[in-house]
Amino acid sequence: MTHSIVVDMSDGSDLHLQELRRGTVVLACVTLLRRPGYGYGLLEQLADRGFATDANTLYPLLRRLEKQGFLRSEWDTAESRPRKFYRTSDEGMRLAEDMTREWRALSRAIGSLDQEGT
């Protein structure tokens, strides 16, 4: 069972939350695409894991990550409609490892903030 965070965005915190989520979606994409996948399938995988993202956000992100060398893509022409599938490059694997390590360090640091208040 996955959990999604639901927050009342009426207090102006939406920009801060959006900024926080942006990096987590990058990490989720380069991690999930270690196994090749299509954009639509990736949207579903992200949603299933609590990273609700719309296509207007995901597809430009995939193109940007490919341009930066973190993803590779190929066209699958076996079906009636060609589809592009993506996979994480070696450089993308290193990015995922670095981002995961940093995320864990930040998570510990944030956890220590809670402990100081008690």
From TrEMBL:
| Ranges for domain Transcription regulator PadR N-terminal | 32-95
Which positions make up the signal peptide? Answer: none
Domain of life of the source: Bacteria
Give a single Pfam family match: PadR
Name of the featured protein:
PadR family transcriptional regulator
Organism encoding this protein: Microbacterium faecale
